[in-house]
Write a structure and sequence with these properties.
By secondary structure, the protein is α/β, with parallel strands linked by helices. The protein has two domains: 134 residues, 3-Layer(aba) Sandwich (Rossmann fold), CATH 3.40.50; 189 residues, Dihydrodipicolinate Reductase, domain 2 (2-Layer Sandwich). Helices cover 29% and strands 25% of the residues. The chain is built from eight helices and 14 strands. Helix 1 packs across helix 8 and helix 3 packs across helix 8. The longest helix has 17 residues.
């Protein structure tokens, strides 16, 4: 790549924004100028990119002049507010929020899963939900080979999914609980220290949460399969920053664990970590700060009379592959 690009990051001071800055640097993305945008209260502070201090600017309608690519991680409302300003400036918005994911003219992209969809953009490309990204990087190679019919997922989602305040709350509560102090939950509906919360995002009338239905609708959109059946239970766990998922997969065609391991070993963005005899399997502690998704516990579903079912376990860094890295990879595709 000899061409260089002017890049803006909206939400530069958040957990994902900071990771985006690091990812652009680590992957040596051809940045000509980097513009860091945040709220008025952060304006004037500095962050470092490639050894240079960059002053944070207040995000306004005029922030996108001469920008080629705008990475957004500032929440749905901000993305909706500035979409037109980005497009009018001739830039491409890569949006990390849920604002536009299900719009027909906005491609929803994971580069390892559906890179060709990038071409369909009209100025906006959406980054999928972090749990969907981590799941599909592992599932897509199996789907392409054996046609996935149904997927049942239980997620174990880190506090980083609720941003820096979620991680800070886990740290604080752990200390408070060990010191037998009073705690008062703020970032989560209940105590997260030494607890699990089977609730992420708002509940719908059918008993599922918004997070769980995102995994259904986003998977169908990216795999181009409206018949795919998906059922999820999303759980917040007292982990810092990598999500894990237990996945039960049903295929149209027979597949053995050996075949699955071969397909996954050859797939981009995946590391097979599957040696139970030596206690080797995916864990969030090993997935943290890793670009790739760890996949293991690959076994035949013994509840079936055929060989069309598998169970697998995956772990992936929610802040990296689940957000910042995926957005930068989309920029690389562009």
């Amino acid at each position: 790549m000899s061409k260089e690009f002017n890049v803006a990051i909206a939400g530069a001071t958040g957990a994902v924004g900071i990771e985006m800055i690091k990812t652009l640097e680590n992957r040596n993305f051809p940045v000509k100028n980097l513009r860091l945008l945040a709220s008025k209260r952060s304006a004037g502070k500095t962050l470092t990119f490639k050894g240079t201090e960059i002053t944070i600017e207040e995000l306004t309608e005029d922030s996108f002049k001469d920008i080629d690519i705008a990475l957004f991680s500032a929440g749905s409302d901000i993305s909706k507010k500035y979409r037109q300003a980005v497009v009018n400036a001739g830039a491409v918005m890569i949006d990390n929020s849920s604002a536009f994911r299900m719009e027909d003219d906005v491609p929803l992209v994971v580069p390892e899963v559906n890179p060709e969809d990038v071409k369909l953009h009209n100025g906006v490309i959406a980054n999928p939900n972090c749990s969907t990204i981590i799941m599909l990087v592992a599932v897509a190679p199996l789907h392409k080979a054996k046609k996935l019919k149904r997927l049942v997922a239980a997620t174990y989602q880190a506090t980083s999914g609720a941003g820096a305040k979620g991680m800070a709350e886990l740290e604080l509560q752990t200390r408070q609980l060990l010191n037998e102090e009073q705690i008062s939950p703020e970032a989560f509906a209940h105590r997260i220290g030494f607890n699990l919360i089977p609730h992420i995002d708002a509940f719908y009338d059918n008993g599922y949460t918004k997070e769980e239905l995102k995994m259904l609708h986003e998977s169908r959109k990216m795999l181009h399969d409206d018949e795919l059946q998906v059922s999820c239970t999303c759980v917040r766990v007292p982990i810092m920053r990598a999500h894990s998922e237990a996945l039960n997969l049903e295929f149209e065609n027979e597949i053995t664990p050996e075949e699955a391991r071969e397909l996954l070993a050859a797939a981009p963005g995946v590391i097979v970590v599957d040696d139970p005899a030596n206690l080797v399997y995916p864990m969030p502690i090993d997935a943290t700060n890793q670009d790739d998704i760890l996949v293991g516990r690959i076994r035949q579903d013994i509840s079936r009379n055929d060989k069309c079912g598998l169970d697998i376990f995956v772990s992936g860094d929610q802040v990296l592959k689940g957000a910042a890295l995926n957005a930068v990879q989309i920029a690389e595709l562009l």
